[in-house]
Amino acid sequence: MNGHESQHGIISHYCEKNMTAVCKRLLQTHNFSTQDHIRDALIKEGFDDISQSTVSRLLTKLKIIKAPNVYGKRVYCVIETTNPTYIDSEIASQIEFVTHNNLVIVVKTHPGSAQLIARIIDLHPHQEILGTIAGNDTVMVAPCHIDRINDCEQAVCLSLGMI
After folding, report:
1. 135/24 Cα distance (integer angstroms)
2. Most C-beta atoms within 10 A of its C-beta, which of 6, 11, 118, 145?
3. Distance of CA 52 to the CA centre of its chain
4. DSSP state letter for 148
5. How far is 108 from 100, CA to CA, in rounded Å?
6. Positive or negative: CA dihedral 72, 78, 81, 85
7. What does the alpha-carbon distance between residue 108 and residue 105 come to, in Å, rounded to a whole number?
8. Residues 109 and 51 in one domain
């Protein structure tokens, strides 16, 4: 490999990291309903030669999900996996209540939001949570130990940014 190829690789790696950071910032500050809208925003940010497949790879790399906003429109959302989840008002507004019956925790959501909420819980494993099952508007969370159901409920609420 000559010096030019090595330098090109460094420049390419830098541009990719910068594009990823810009894409994440855009997704955190705007509501995008299509990958074309994300692509257009990245072009306006100076990334001229970006394809839809590049946008798709960025979304996968950033672990982006599509979730309904407060108006019911599905938009791309950033879910942090290394830090505690910050649930913004758009996602938190999808949760109606959290309760338990001494056997299982139930998270009641608006229709169509349960899988998103279960995914958020699953992205933040906790020793008190055995697993989740999601339907359309209900998430059932199995505790590791039913004698510590209150601790499990608290862990669920913590993972959803409710406490």
Report:
1. 29
2. 118
3. 20
4. G
5. 11
6. negative
7. 10
8. no
Question: Residue 144 maps to which CATH number?
Answer: 3.30.1360.40
Q: 3-class SS at 110?
A: coil
**This prediction's pTM:** 0.51
Write the CA distances from 47 to 14, 38, 63, 99, integer angstroms.
13, 11, 21, 47
Alpha-carbon span 140 to 83, nearest angstrom: 24
Strands 95-100 and 65-68, bridge-based pairing? unpaired
Tokens of 73: 């429109």
The single-letter code of the amino acid at 75 is V
Amino acid at 107: V
Show the domain range for 47: 7-78
pLDDT digits (tens, 9 = 90+) for 112-125: 888 888 888 888 78
Q: Is 159 exposed, middle or buried (0-12, 13-18, 19+ CB in 10 A)?
A: buried
Length of the chain: 163
Q: Are residues 24 and 74 in the same domain?
A: yes
Write out pLDDT tens, residues 23-80. 988 888 888 999 999 999 999 999 888 898 999 999 888 888 887 766 677 888 876 5
Number of domains in the chain: 2
Sign (positive/negative) of CA torsion 70, 82, 152, 86? negative
